[in-house]
Amino acid sequence: MRCYKKIGEAWNHFFFTGFSGESLGLLRMYIGCGLLAFHTYQFATVLSLKPLGSMYYFIEPIWYFQLLGIHYHIPALSFVIYALLMGATITMIMGKWTRSSILIVILCIFYLKGVRDSFSGDVHHRYIIPMQMLLLFLLSKCGQVHSRDANRKVYPPVQEWEASWPIKTIQLYVALFYFWSVIAKVRVSGWEWFAGGGRIQEVLIKRSVRWGLTGEGELVKNSLSFELAQHPELIQIFSHLVLAFELGFPLILFIKAVKLRALFLAGVITFHIATFVLMDVNFLLIPFVYLVFFDLVPIHSWLKARTAHLFTRRNSVAC
């Protein structure tokens, strides 16, 4: 019985303590700002088509398009949905009609992601973490603090447990996303992915030659990937580092020092930059979700004070 009691206490302490309603409201705002850039980057290929151009049939529609009977692309509709997506993201940041805005954002992402993936014939996973965050925001009381909704209606104070559980759940999901990526690599490629580095070498070569050669016989781009592929011993070191950081990512849940968390996440950001440059793995902007690992109240206060100081200084210079 004592063991079960301790487990219950640890569970409650992890999920239901540590954050305030202000923390949750600020997280909604800052994650929303990150989503504005993320949406634009992810759907640039869909928006590159002419709005009034020809309609295209999908060769391989994504599964939920098949389920809904969506078999072709209407270019103008994508632009309308994208405008709706950006508008709903802005109202989510403002906290105006918060739940409805979040729901619209989710539905728009499903449509635009479905269009992109139906064209490419592949399922991209870059929206997995942001989508889970949006679902948890939808279920939470994130619109009751730092929002226009709170200005129109008086809400009871958001309790610590009400603010903490969605933030802690997102933290756990992000940590497990990286942890389970190791399991996925082993399932697909076996331990050879980490032991010999052969899989990484294969990807480096494929990505380096995917754009073809110039007239002089040189790679059009990414010659660095090709050069790195010639050093299997270096690749093996990198593969071991990837294994260590992905398996060890859940440890961030137990790191209390803010500076240590920031240092750990800086290493992860460096990893994503390297994989983008060398392998064209397009998770370059995903680090905006790491804001969930910090209490944004002191950060927001510092930014407000800094902004006010700069504004006052500019006015004094102008006078």
Question: How would you sum up this structure, described in words?
Answer:
With 319 residues, the protein is mainly alpha-helical. It is 70% helix and 1% strand. The mean pLDDT is 85.
Number of helices: 15
Distance between termini? Answer: 71 Å
Strand order of the largest sheet: 1-2
Assess the beta-strand content as a share of residues.
Answer: under 5%
Instruction: Estimate the helix proportion, in percent.
Output: 55-70%
Task: Calculate Rg over CA atoms.
Answer: 23 Å
List SSEs in N-to-C order.
HHHEHEHHHHHHHHHHH
What composes the largest sheet?
2 strands, antiparallel
pLDDT average, as an integer? 85
Count of strand segments: 2
Structural class determined from secondary elements? mainly alpha
Low-confidence stretches: none
Structural shape: globular
Quaternary state of this entry equals: single chain
TL;DR of this structure?
The protein is an all-alpha fold and 319 residues long. It is built from 15 helices and two strands.
Task: Furnish the topology, listing elements before pairings.
Elements: H1 2-16, H2 21-42, H3 44-47, E1 56-57, H4 63-68, E2 72-73, H5 75-94, H6 98-120, H7 128-139, H8 148-152, H9 160-189, H10 192-195, H11 198-209, H12 223-229, H13 232-248, H14 258-279, H15 296-318
Antiparallel strand pairs: 1-2
Helix pairs in contact: 2-5, 2-9, 5-6, 6-7, 7-9, 9-13, 11-12
